[in-house]
Amino acid sequence: MEPLWREVVGRRLRERRQSRGDTLSDTATRAGISPQYLSEVERGRKDPSSEILAAVVGALGTSIAEIAGLAHRDLTRGGATTLAA
């Protein structure tokens, strides 16, 4: 079964956050959302609005275009198969 866009984007957001050494709480506070909600976004359980996504990528020092590009690459190159890991 093909992964959902929100799962791939969530994984990319989590990778970016972790590569920065940020906690869920750090990033959520900067984005103005709860850590619980950010966790659900990262796990692909919630489909964030464009406003929430913009706030999260801003808190991570990146852009929607960059995260979307990485997610697109994952989906087209088969990288999304690692989502279950």
Task: Describe the protein.
There is one protein chain. By secondary structure, the chain is mostly helical. The chain has a single domain, classed as 434 Repressor (Amino-terminal Domain) (Orthogonal Bundle). 65% of the residues lie in helices and 0% in strands. It is built from 5 helices and no strands. It is globular. The model has no long low-confidence stretch (mean pLDDT 92).
Choose one word for the global shape: globular
Quick check: average pLDDT?
92
Radius of gyration computed on alpha carbons: 12 Å
Low-pLDDT residue spans: none
| Class derived from helix and strand content | mainly alpha
- One letter per element, helices H and strands E, the order comes to HHHHH
Q: CATH superfamily membership, which one?
A: lambda repressor-like DNA-binding domains
How would a textbook summarize the main sheet?
A: none
Number of domains: 1
- Quote the beta fraction: under 5%
CATH fold name: 434 Repressor (Amino-terminal Domain)
CATH class: Mainly Alpha
